[in-house]
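Build the 3D complex.
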Amino acid sequence: AIHLTQSPSSLSASVGDRVTITCRASQGISSALAWFQQKPGKAPRLLIYDASNLESGVPSRFSGSGSGTEFTLTISSLQPADFATYFCQQSSSYPVTFGQGTRVEIK
Amino acid sequence: EVQLVESGGTLAQPGGSLRLTCVGSGFAFSSFEMNWIRQVPGKGLEWIAYIDSGGDNIYYADSVRGRFAISRDNVKNSVYLQLGSLGDRDTALYFCARDLGFCSGGTCYPGALDVWGQGTLVTVSS
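Done.
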């Protein structure tokens, strides 16, 4: 199975900050990576698919980049609604796997 | 509105069984692959099962293979997860999710999991 490692596991940031989260795959997955946002008690919400495509309805402050084994999710200007946990997920092959999550907290 | 709604989660006995149901609405359910994913509260996400649109291709995570079974009824717009030989490790919130992947030449490839249900909680305890 393809293993995904996210970093950092958590971070503290202020409203307006630029935030970057990294996801590394244990083997090359081309651009088959998605990013999700999850708030407590809610289902994950798809933000980015195929590494860099913004899901419909997701604010443009979210962006994704990368290919192969290294990927990033960037929030250009952190908003109050963005404090949540973020997961990456590889869609290259089954079994589908997820990163362990990055918790974004208010500084 | 595109929606998935899970049901069937409850308190179950170790070694017992349970069936979860996920009903889709607002989209052509029979055209989409579906997955079950679970999450221990406060922990990460674990994919556990996949079924293609016609029910012909099925994949499982090693952690549940031989104990769980996924199936679907496209007339009822429903996908099911039969859980068996339950253990403490199966306690989790179970989500169903729509998959934008595809199948080709007998092999299926995952896509974006673009629609999720709200989850149904399974607690395994004596």
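The CA atoms of residues 50 and 59 of chain B lie 5 Å apart.
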